[in-house]
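Dissemination and training. As part of the outreach component of the grant, students in the summer workshop were shown how a complex can be specified as a set of sequence lines and then modelled as a single object. The example used during the hands-on session is reproduced here so that future cohorts can follow it. Participants entered these lines:
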Amino acid sequence: MNKKKNMWKVVYLLPLVFALTLAGCSNQSQTAKNGQTETVVKLGVVVPLSGEAGALGEEMQKVIDYYLPQINARYAKQGLKFVAVYEDGKCSGNDAVSAYQKLTDIDGAKFIIGGLCSSETLAMAPLSKNASALVLSPGSSNPAIEGASPYTFTFSYSDDMIGKKLATAMSTFKRVAIITEQNDYNIGIQKVWLEAIKNYPDVKVVANETFEKGGADFRSILEKVKATNPDAILLNPNAGVTPRNLLKQLAEIKDWNNYKLFGQVAFISPEVLQSAPEKTEGMIVVDSPSMSAPELLTLKSQIEATKGTLADIGSYFTASTIDTLNVVTSLIAELGNDPKAVREALVSREFKGYISDNINFKNSNFPGVGAAVYNVKNGAVELQK
Amino acid sequence: MLLLAVPLYLVYSVSRIYHLALGASGMAAAYGLYFGLSKGWPLGLAIFLAIAVAVSLSLISYWLLESAARKKQTMLGLLISLALGIVIESLISIIFGTDAKSLVNGVLPIISWGALYITIPGVITILAGILLAIIFVLLINKTPWGRNLVGIAENDHLSASLNINASKIRCGVFIAAGLLAGFIGIMTVMNTALAPQTGFPLVILAFIALLIGGITDIRGTIIATYLIALIPELIINLSSSEWSLSTNWKMVIVFILAALVLIWRPKGLFISKSRVD
Amino acid sequence: MGYLFTQLARYSEAAIMSTGAHLAVAVTNIFFLGIPVMSTLAAYTLVITQNKGIPLIWSLFLSLFSVLLTSLIFVLAYLKLSADSFTVFTLASVLAFDAVLKSWDSVTGGVLGIAGIIRPNFILTLSRLAWFQFGLTLIVLLAEYIILKTWLGRALLGMKENKYIVESSGISTKRLGAAVIIISSFFAALAGIVTVWRIQFLDPGFGGLVLLIQIMTIAVVAAKPKIRWLAISTLIIVLLPEILRLLNLPPTIIGHLRNLLYALILLIIIRKISSNLLPQKRFI
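and obtained this result:
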């Protein structure tokens, strides 16, 4: 009987504890500091902090944690303070939706920086249609974001650009093959590439292989592709250990050399290219334009010195994260914590940033950034002139 | 990694419990080795750490599953082992993160015969697998120790009356299974990559091998292991470019294969004769 | 308020799905682990048929019908295999179905999933949806209560204790087991449908092992065949990760910590109350 009573006590107390914790949350608070009222604006951040894409989300968190104090210093005189509230999107639409709802309903965030994965952004887009929040992704590139919601934008280049550029680069070969990791970013590129390659009737796709997300053994796939005798192979894995394993296992096949390798952002890093230097020499990589502005490179190295490596997100997504923060905070400082007003300004103005001198959302949910082609020489990429 | 079916069979044979945490335990041992190597420890010390991790997890598994085994509560044992596997995987994810890691840098040395090639760790795995298969078949079918194992599984009270300590033997089997799983885990990640979530799908495949082969016969288990490894690969590799199946369909093919075999022969392809009371 | 309605909706979804698991595991001792498969199958069938322009009522019918057909496959496996083999077989089905969803992208959208799923007009807002789900939960719990009070419930409990005595009273335990699998699948399908209406996004991550661990934890914690135990168990398990979220722990570990907690709860509860999960041993 006592046990039953105790159990019911727990049942009654649990919602009370929950409610009290919720009551402690506030969305926008005003605190007096040194006689000056400070308005705290919460920026919700939805990035993968666990799972296979966790490394990417953690690096983005490093950039935000480093740069946000500089933004706060900029707007301190206006009495504005921006605070990032992180939620783990897990690179999953389901978790991103829960994260969005928690950030907007509990934390009262009106602006969401994220998702990083396209599946996160695509899942949040319909929720933002009612202007509950303005979603600004620093890294989602799936073409389906175009038109997904009037309140969802991305500072990334579109997979459309990358896929089409890769198809153009490979159009001089007769027999082409593609090996794709089964995740939203890579499947997006695969779809665009397959569609674009149809514009070149002389080019035949002899192999179109996919492997499971986070896969580690590609030997049977590589043997299958080898049997089709392609002239060019597009390697389309996600960043991390997977491209390294793919290259290493490709290098194990000693008697197969008569092909040209193509890749995307996963092969930008010298660490990846040096895992099989004899294979990657002469490889063509298509990615965002070179982020060579001295200010950006200095900032990136400062972040790396204090917070750790940014090898997985690289220069472009470091730049896009900084630009996202700069743009959204400048508009909030000017127009207030109002998603509608900020959105109107976003689609009617042009902005200057590290990713481009003309960041422009007038006719698109994408910022109008193109793609660049790189050659691999001596284990590093060089921009093709 | 499908050789994981051998330690699974060993645990099942003494306890009638499907030890679903073996895959995670194997991965944990591999992470132990990775930890030692990444800290710059000598190889021997890193291997010792991997062995210590494997033995510790085996003892924890034994402690959790022994009462279920003694009371023949096989379903509870299965649930306990599933939960333990999730605990191990979550702890690894929290400590090491979920991003894949490489145990070996650089390209692996290979041995090739014409169009065929295989990496050195792959050779070691295959040879070890064949050797283990022969050893365990002989041990279980031809030695008193093997007969004790079978006796405990059938009737541990009767075995106790013959002065066979079932608990001690089960403990020994759990440790042996854990060490085997650790060895298999390390060999697998040397050939591929190290990630916490790798163990679970492989242990399910190994169980399917156990079911298809016949849970009472180790020879059936070993043969089924190779069938499950080879048949999906053959189907995928022989599929033409128009109807090309990617490697993602492997689990589906195995599942359909298992469903067909088990509907035809519910007790597996190879069944040991047993006395009917 | 939106967050509270979301939690009410999540509680309802978990309760509906766990009712099936509770009936199978706690009441009948059938460890049917294919429940996430049924839930995901129902959700995908509903969304795909709706996207093809099929009216909602027919989509719902097709969704439930597809689940019924698939549950018959599991019934066949239940009749042919031993108890633990059936359990492992159903566990393998979770992985196999996940592979199908990811690979058959022309139908399921693959890893990109299907976004922008529209709710029915009568539950367009989150508050209405949450109350609708809660009402459905009460109906499902009432259904299980009625089942347990009728001869069917007594036969199921008897099957857990001693199936031979149930057989000798002229009740087919095979049919009982089949009925439990089909009823559990039906509840899982309902849960999948209402969940996809709330999330409005569907991808292969919808079901899977994480969901399985959650519902098995709920079913095992609610060890007794009593509705209030199920309701309380669902409340505790659903609220636990939300309390973690509010504790300002590093976001990198919250997801894994949740899984770890569920699994630890499962371990502790099974060891502590294992006798309640097993046939009651009566001494005459």
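Chain A touches chain B through 35 residues (CB under 8 Å). Students were then asked to discuss how this feature might be tested experimentally.
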